[in-house]
């Protein structure tokens, strides 16, 4: 049943195409055989079966071109009276007019199916077996005709020109299309990886930051005077839930960025002052020292990463943000409540790569009784000529 389904044409266009192919092949077969008006009996005995055989070959040729190639063997280039070229081999053979690449009216159709065999057949062994059969037929024809050396030359060129070369062209075409498809799939895969990295960047920069600010607000409520025990407990549960959501978000970001080397290269959203103001509104104690001059492109990303880490790992701590044309730093003091976030994550690693690509340096570590994230950026696009500031 599966084989019968493969014989069905997918569109009317394919049906018309195959009917025209069979009609053309039938006309050429008729031209090769007896004249139906002079010898109708011979036409019915010789040409009619060949036309029927051609119909079967066209029927199976679309799904199985190798089967069509074998069916058309009786119509192969086994007449050596006409050829693509005639050469003089009198220096080697008694005959002068040796036909090279014999051609018959049906040869173009056989060449077409040989090409389709290489184009569509994924395995080489069936084609090799069929070519061995074709070679046996050719050898038999030559031996039947006397085995003259000129016949061997004609038969060899017929096999190469009619069967082998078209098959190799089809095989080459298939390999080129496969390579093109693999290239396209690789490009699509890289595009998906870049998009996954972009999504991970946006989730970390926006949603992760907002979750950290929610935890800060909850921690502030937890320490606020005048609340009952139930409200304090609810605020603590909210803070823990925000921390848990942040951890799950980090796991999701890890999946999105798996096997991706793409680094986010452009900040999104608000400027540094607006970012600090929004974090302050959430309950963080922040001071901003914004030096005159141009603000570095990476300043927002550095400040956001520093504020997010401070909110997660040092709840309630005072935070100092310093921004100058060549240095951005975020320092926090000791935490006022127990941190709920787990250490590790992709934010600092991604930021370090972005700073490296920009030609800068990043330091992150303990500073006095707190923690400092500092980035030194080059002036005018040149790598910095001085080491980053460290705190003893």
UniProtKB/TrEMBL annotation:
Entry's Pfam families? HisKA_3
Enzyme Commission number(s) from the entry: 2.7.13.3
Transmembrane residue ranges:
15-34, 64-80, 128-145, 151-172
**Residues covered by the Signal transduction histidine kinase subgroup 3 dimerisation and phosphoacceptor domain:** 195-259
Q: Which UniProt keywords apply?
A: ATP-binding, Kinase, Membrane, Nucleotide-binding, Phosphoprotein, Transferase, Transmembrane, Transmembrane helix, Two-component regulatory system
Top-level taxon in the UniProt lineage: Bacteria
Cite the GO molecular-function annotations of the record. kinase activity
Q: Which reaction does it catalyse?
A: ATP + protein L-histidine = ADP + protein N-phospho-L-histidine
**What is the designated name of this protein?**
histidine kinase
Report the source organism: Nonomuraea marmarensis
């Amino acid at each position: 049943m599966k084989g019968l389904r493969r014989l069905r044409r997918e569109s009317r266009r394919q049906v018309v195409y195959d009917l025209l192919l069979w009609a053309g092949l039938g006309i050429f077969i008729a031209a090769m055989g007896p004249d139906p008006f002079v010898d109708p009996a011979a036409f019915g005995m010789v040409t009619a079966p060949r036309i029927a055989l051609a119909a079967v070959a066209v029927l199976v040729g679309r799904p199985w071109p190798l089967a069509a190639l074998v069916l058309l063997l009786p119509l192969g280039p086994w007449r050596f009276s006409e050829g693509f070229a005639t050469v003089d081999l009198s220096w080697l053979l008694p005959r002068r007019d040796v036909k090279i690449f014999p051609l018959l009216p049906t040869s173009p159709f056989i060449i077409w199916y040989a090409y389709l065999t290489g184009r569509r057949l994924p395995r080489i062994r069936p084609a090799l077996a069929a070519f061995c059969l074709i070679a046996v037929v050719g050898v038999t024809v030559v031996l039947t005709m006397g085995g003259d050396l000129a016949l061997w030359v004609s038969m060899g060129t017929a096999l190469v020109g009619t069967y082998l070369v078209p098959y190799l062209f089809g095989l080459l075409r298939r390999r080129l299309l496969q390579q093109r498809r693999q290239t396209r799939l690789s490009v699509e895969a890289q595009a998906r990886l870049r998009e996954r990295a972009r999504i991970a960047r946006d989730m970390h920069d926006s949603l992760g930051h907002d979750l950290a600010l929610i935890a800060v607000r909850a921690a502030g409520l937890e320490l606020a005077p005048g609340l009952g025990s139930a409200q304090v407990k609810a605020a603590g549960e909210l803070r823990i839930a925000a921390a848990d959501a942040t951890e799950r978000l980090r796991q999701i970001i890890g999946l999105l960025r798996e096997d991706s080397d793409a680094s986010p290269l452009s900040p999104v959203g608000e400027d540094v002052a607006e970012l600090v103001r929004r974090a302050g509104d959430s309950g963080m104690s922040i001071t901003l020292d914004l030096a005159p001059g141009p603000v570095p492109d990476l300043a927002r990303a550095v400040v956001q990463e520093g504020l997010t880490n401070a909110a997660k790992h040092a709840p309630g701590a005072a935070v100092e943000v310093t921004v100058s044309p060549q240095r951005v730093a975020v320092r926090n003091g000791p935490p006022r409540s127990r941190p709920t976030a787990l250490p590790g994550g992709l934010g600092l690693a991604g930021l370090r790569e972005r700073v490296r690509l920009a030609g800068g340096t990043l330091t992150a570590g303990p500073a006095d009784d707190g923690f400092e994230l500092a980035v030194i950026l080059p002036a005018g696009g040149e790598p910095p000529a001085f080491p980053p500031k460290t705190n003893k």
